[in-house]
């Protein structure tokens, strides 16, 4: 079959066509194989009398029997917290199957599950390949895909590259989901305009845009709940600093990444009720926490200023 090993019948056809004077490319085309497969087969299995199908099949079989399989290293399973390793393996398998059922490709699901059940959420490509018993190329392909979905990130320590699932992963996934929904809304609205909102196809597109817009409304409402604690922490930091601070300065002081600080500031700005009597003002690339003086009467402000 195309893509599989050559059969005895394939080899007999090769021998016949070689005698007929056909080139490797034409033989490969007729068998549905790469030209390199045919040229390699003839080069490796030709004797003094040329290429003979029965002899080629026998030699290939002997070569395969002599080839010893490489023992595969046992997966590394840590047990630092006294867990049952078998229970952890079963959970990892169940977690993988759940992600596959929701549409994530299997190899990507296996990598994500493997990282998720490790306590530090960090593995190198070599560690993942050993743990999952797959090739480094499979790990590389999976990581590239997971990066596009904001499900992990790369970090370099010296000459080693490692893959990380950190506490910011849910926020990154959320942000990517919001962005993807915005694209759905945009293209569906465009479709409704092109097709005509009074036509069945146009109505369908309009409904699609409204559906994704509603999803984003719900997700944005959820964002407030997710980031409200961060927003209050950022406000406390600004109040304590008593000066304007940039996002990088806040990130360095709080030990967060810039994306988390920016998200918290957006919530504080867009939802002032979160912070009570304090609001965030942006000024010259920095941010400052100021009191909502609108809550005070003129007499109260005068008394405080005296």
UniProtKB/TrEMBL annotation:
Residues 103-158 form the HTH marR-type domain. One of its GO terms (molecular function) is transposase activity. One of its GO terms (biological process) is transposition. Residues 5-45 form the Transposase IS30-like HTH domain. GO terms for cellular component: cytosol. Gene3D superfamilies: Winged helix-like DNA-binding domain superfamily/Winged helix DNA-binding domain. It holds the Pfam family HTH_38. It comes from the Bacteria. Residues 51-63 have a biased composition (Basic and acidic residues). Residues 42-80 are annotated as: Disordered. PANTHER family: TRANSPOSASE, TRANSPOSASE INSI FOR INSERTION SEQUENCE ELEMENT IS30A-RELATED. This is MarR family transcriptional regulator. It comes from Amycolatopsis orientalis.
């Amino acid at each position: 079959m195309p893509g599989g090993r050559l059969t005895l019948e394939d080899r007999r056809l090769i021998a016949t066509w070689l005698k007929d004077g056909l080139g490797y490319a034409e033989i490969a085309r007729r068998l549905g194989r790469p030209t390199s497969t045919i040229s390699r087969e003839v080069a490796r299995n030709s004797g003094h009398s040329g290429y003979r199908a029965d002899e080629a099949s026998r030699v290939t079989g002997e070569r395969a029997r002599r080839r010893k399989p490489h023992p595969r290293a046992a997966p590394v399973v840590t047990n630092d917290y006294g867990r049952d390793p078998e229970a952890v393996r079963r959970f990892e398998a169940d977690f993988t199957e759940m992600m596959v059922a929701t549409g994530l490709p299997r190899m990507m699901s296996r990598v994500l599950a493997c990282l998720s059940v490790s306590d530090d959420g960090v593995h190198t490509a070599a560690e993942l390949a050993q743990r999952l018993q797959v090739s480094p190329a499979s790990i590389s392909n999976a990581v590239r895909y997971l990066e596009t979905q904001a499900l992990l990130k790369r970090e370099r320590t010296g000459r080693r590259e490692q893959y990380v699932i950190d506490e910011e992963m849910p926020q990154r996934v959320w942000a990517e989901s919001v962005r993807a929904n915005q694209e759905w809304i945009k293209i569906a609205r465009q479709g409704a305009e092109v097709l005509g909102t009074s036509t069945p196809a146009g109505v369908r597109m309009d409904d699609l845009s409204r559906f994704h817009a509603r999803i984003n409304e719900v997700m944005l409402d959820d964002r407030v709940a997710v980031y409200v604690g961060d927003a209050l922490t950022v406000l406390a930091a600004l109040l304590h600093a008593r000066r304007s601070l940039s996002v990088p300065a806040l990130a360095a002081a709080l030990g967060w990444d810039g994306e988390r600080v920016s998200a918290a500031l957006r919530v504080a700005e867009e939802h002032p009720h979160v912070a009570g009597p304090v609001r965030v003002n942006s000024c010259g690339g920095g941010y400052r926490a100021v009191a909502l003086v609108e809550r005070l009467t003129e007499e109260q402000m005068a008394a405080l200023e005296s």
